[in-house]
Specification:
Pfam families: PP2C_2 (PF13672). The chain is 34% helix and 27% strand. It has 8 helices and 12 strands. Helix 2 packs antiparallel against helix 3.
């Protein structure tokens, strides 16, 4: 049994954002996001949900560089992302144009974080996985090791981690099993504001019943495929997310845990 103080710390540190168009048809998307401090002293993750008539925007950012810097960097990334998408998006955009827009926005965020990385915030950075969803199609951008998954009867990881261990896996130097406890598992090869920066872009179709899930590594590192598939059948995105976050904590996550789910 967990001690009461630990539970109160978790419950007291929850920040959630829910977005749901109640004025749409019953087939309208169900979206919910939750971020928790977990066993860490502070929460350096940030999440975003924006719903408009033209699109839905969801994101998870995991800050780097210590509490003061990490929290600032992840919030900065989320704020700039929301502002720039709101300004640049128009409903006639094709998928390649949305990808190009996201690439430009990620570059702007990277440069903005670099510019403010001074004093106590020197060396700060953040991961950022985001999705712009329109007409049951999603364009996903990713830098770092936060992830995007498609979940239905199986789990498909859409993004590839920008990490040292992922590079070692790609080069067949280590296996995925060896990567789990590798001493370099938390070392990123790319981040917003970091010495090395790249953004990967993806396109996914969201058929009815299929869930798009964005998360930080405090979730993905402690969650099995079976648990994700089992949770995905729950009635609402809120129930799914709350179940998954609690499961990650019960499975031993000692990091901040953040999850945003979109289900059409």
């Amino acid at each position: 049994m967990k001690n009461p103080g630990w539970f109160e710390k978790i419950a007291g540190s929850l920040r959630s954002i829910a977005g749901k168009h109640t004025d749409l048809t019953p087939a309208s998307p169900d979206i919910f996001g939750l971020t928790t401090t977990g066993k860490r002293p502070a929460n350096e993750d940030s999440i975003l949900i924006v719903s408009t008539d033209a699109y839905h925007l969801i994101a998870v950012a995991d800050g780097l560089g210590g509490h003061a810097a990490g929290d600032y960097a992840s919030n900065m990334a989320i704020r700039i992302l929301e502002k720039e998408v709101t300004s640049a998006f128009h409903d006639k955009m094709e998928i390649p144009e949305i990808k190009a827009m996201l690439r430009d926005i990620y570059t702007k965020i990277h440069e903005a974080i670099e510019e403010e990385s001074t004093g106590e915030r020197k060396g700060m950075g953040t991961t950022l996985v985001s999705a712009i969803i329109r007409n049951k199609e999603a364009v996903i951008g990713n830098t770092g090791d936060s992830r995007a998954y498609l979940v239905h009867e199986k789990v498909v990881q859409l993004t590839k981690d920008h990490s040292v261990v992922q590079s070692l896996i790609d080069e067949e130097i280590i296996t995925e099993e060896q990567a789990i406890n590798h001493p370099l598992k938390n070392l990123l090869s790319s981040s917003l504001g970091g010495a090395s920066f790249q953004v990967d872009l993806y396109h996914a179709k969201l058929v009815p019943g299929r869930m798009l899930l964005l998360c930080s590594d405090g979730f993905s590192g402690y969650m099995g495929v079976e648990e994700m598939v089992s949770a995905a059948i729950m009635p609402s995105a809120e129930e799914i997310v709350r179940r998954l976050v609690q499961s990650a904590l019960e499975n031993g996550s000692e990091d901040n845990v953040s999850v945003v789910a979109y289900r059409s």
